[in-house]
Design a protein that fits this description.
It is found in: Secreted. This is Protein NDNF. This protein has eight helices and 36 strands. Strands 12, 13, 14, 15, 17, 18 and 19 form a seven-stranded antiparallel beta sheet that branches. It has a five-stranded mixed beta sheet with strand order 1-3-8-5-6. It is mostly beta strands. Strand 14 and strand 15 form a beta hairpin. It starts with a helix and ends in a 5-residue tail after the last strand. Helix 1 packs antiparallel against helix 2. It has four domains: 102 residues, Jelly Rolls; 120 residues, Immunoglobulins (Immunoglobulin-like), CATH 2.60.40.10; 95 residues, Sandwich (Jelly Rolls), CATH 2.60.120.510; 110 residues, Sandwich (Immunoglobulin-like).
């Protein structure tokens, strides 16, 4: 018997009529009543497409049923059903209704014959459950049918509304919709660093046969492993990120949302999704089966999932996920500070690493001095493990501390900007021999707009009660150079780094009354309508200069 779709619908209608007639004309047993109920449910279900992946949306606690029929076109008819939960665990089962060939043949003859068969019970029918599953793993059922049969799939979600994908095929000769997994689908961790993890996995057989249509995609996150790409995408969306449904497959930059970052490097495409719940990375690396994940945080546990993706069908299969914890941050190298010695340190802004200095006190009172040369620096000082100072510094900063002999001080420095920063550091117990000169209340240079002419400008700056040497320098700059000139200025460098032609004058100055400790200077011989940057250097007894904040002034164009 070969059952076509047309003949399938006809017996099904007649079969229902036969059951209804039988229920009226003769007593029914419990098994017969169950059969009629199941048959009614079959009829009111939806037809499941053969050879196509179907997305099914499930409402909480409401079962959903689909059915399909297998024709007896050959001795054995194989079929496979793959169900992929995309979120929470679900329950699903396969039920089969089998009827004898003689019964279906007579059913096609007419209603009278059907009633006769029903009365005599010569054509028993059976409804049985052949498979059921509960969980959130991708599950595949492979079956074989020796005669025509009607199958029903029932799906139920008891946790919340969700969606799943279902793939039915009766054609096992035309290849696989889903890429194949190797016999050992585990991901091996072959290397762990402070910020990297190296992974490897066995090749999918699909890669060996259809290399141009297959690629591997890696998912990295800090929460847990995902059993399917569908489940991963659902979780990413629920965390507040908008993930295009074909992101891992097409990876088109036009699909990216504002909270996504795409990185293309060495034929590898990385998508980084950022949300309050953490960071999720998707990396597709073609057919390479070894990959080192970079830029991870130290001492952090990460979960890794590899999916082999068929680019033609958009279907994927998941390897068995793994996890690894990156190594703890290595103890920073500690540099010993010597009493009275000045060192200059350059801090890497991109890596944001601490630079550590250690000093063992030889006196009860000591003083740390920091001179910021460039950028912004955060200073953290501890004494015997307890914090005694924590501050962002700008310009020149002193920390005078009291303690005991042999107290251990640890100084940690870090750039607070993405660009590099630089700072000079000194620790000393000799307060009477200051390294840096006595500073005024402000290191700003003031210019007087009303006193500007076409060839001169007048500037002023504050002095101190200590007689000191001040040197003034000027430099001509263009309009588009102002920002770069001010940003790149090294506040620790002295006049020795300047060209001789830039020197204007040097003078000594002080005043016992701080309110009158102000000096002015008019710089002549300038060009009209021109920008100049002016610098003042203050020298103390040690000869180490302190640079005032640069001042940009433009001469008048017309006078």
């Amino acid at each position: 018997l070969k059952m076509s779709w047309f003949w399938f619908y006809l017996p099904l209608h007649l079969l229902m009529v036969a059951c209804l007639c039988h229920s009226i004309k003769a007593p029914t047993t419990s098994s017969q009543q169950s059969f009629k109920t199941d048959l009614f449910n079959f009829y009111h279900s939806l037809i499941l497409a053969d050879g196509k992946e179907t997305t099914i949306h499930l409402l909480k606690d409401i079962p959903k049923r689909y059915y399909f029929v297998l024709e007896e076109s050959r001795a054995l008819a194989p079929f496979t059903i793959t169900v992929t939960p995309c979120d929470v665990p679900i329950e699903w089962s396969i039920l089969v209704h089998k009827a004898s060939a003689s019964f279906l043949g007579k059913a096609a003859l007419g209603e009278h014959d059907i009633q006769e068969v029903s009365k005599s019970q010569k054509a028993p029918s059976m409804v049985s459950t052949i498979f059921n599953y509960k969980g959130n793993s991708v599950e595949t059922y492979m079956g074989m049918s020796s005669h025509s049969a009607l199958y029903m799939l029932e799906f139920l979600s008891t946790e919340r509304d969700t969606h799943i994908t279902v793939y039915l095929t009766t054609d096992t000769t035309s290849g696989h919709l889903y890429p194949e997994l190797p016999m050992d689908p585990r991901i091996d961790v072959i290397g762990i660093g402070h910020t990297t993890v190296t992974l490897t996995w066995k090749h999918s057989p699909s890669v060996l046969h259809h290399r141009e249509n297959i690629q591997y995609c890696l998912l990295v996150n800090e929460k847990h492993n995902y059993k399917s790409l569908c489940a991963a995408e659902t979780a990413i969306r629920s965390s507040g990120m908008k993930l295009p449904p074909t992101l891992a497959l097409s990876l088109s930059p036009y699909l990216l949302e504002p909270q996504q970052v795409m990185i293309l490097s060495n034929s590898e495409l990385s998508i980084i999704n950022k949300a309050s719940s953490g960071e999720v990375r998707q990396i597709c690396m073609g057919t390479k089966n070894t990959y080192t994940v970079p830029n991870l945080s130290h001492s952090t546990q990460y979960y890794f999932d590899v999916f082999v993706v068929n680019l033609l069908t958009n279907a994927s299969a998941a390897y068995t996920g793994t996890f690894a914890r990156t190594l703890e941050e290595p103890e920073p190298k500690v540099t010993e500070l010597k009493d009275g010695k000045v060192i200059q340190i350059v801090l890497d802004g991109k890596k944001q690493k601490f630079y550590s200095l250690q000093y063992q006190a030889r006196h009860k009172k000591i003083q740390f001095t920091f001179q910021l040369c460039h950028g912004q620096v955060r200073v953290h000082i501890t004494k015997n493990g307890k914090t005694v100072a924590l501050e962002n510094i700008s310009g020149l900063k002193y920390f005078s501390l009291k303690g005991k002999l042999l107290d251990t001080y640890l100084v940690q420095l870090r750039s607070t900007e993405e660009s590099n920063s630089s700072v000079k550091v000194q620790v000393s117990s000799h307060f009477h021999k200051p390294l840096f000169p006595l500073l005024p209340e402000s290191l700003k240079i003031k210019s007087f707009s009303k006193l500007r002419t076409c060839n001169s400008v007048t500037i002023a700056w504050l002095g101190t009660q200590q007689e000191s040497k001040y040197c003034v320098y000027k430099k001509r700059i263009e309009e588009d150079q102002v920002w770069m000139e001010l940003q790149s200025a090294d506040r620790c460098s002295g006049p020795e780094s300047r060209h001789k032609s830039e020197k204007v004058l040097c003078k000594y100055f002080y005043d016992i009354n701080l309110q009158r400790a102000v000096t002015t200077e008019t710089i002549q011989g300038l060009d009209a309508g021109t920008l100049y940057v002016f610098d003042v250097y203050l020298f103390g007894p040690s000869g180490i200069p302190v640079r005032y904040h640069s001042k940009v002034v433009k001469t008048r164009k017309k006078c």
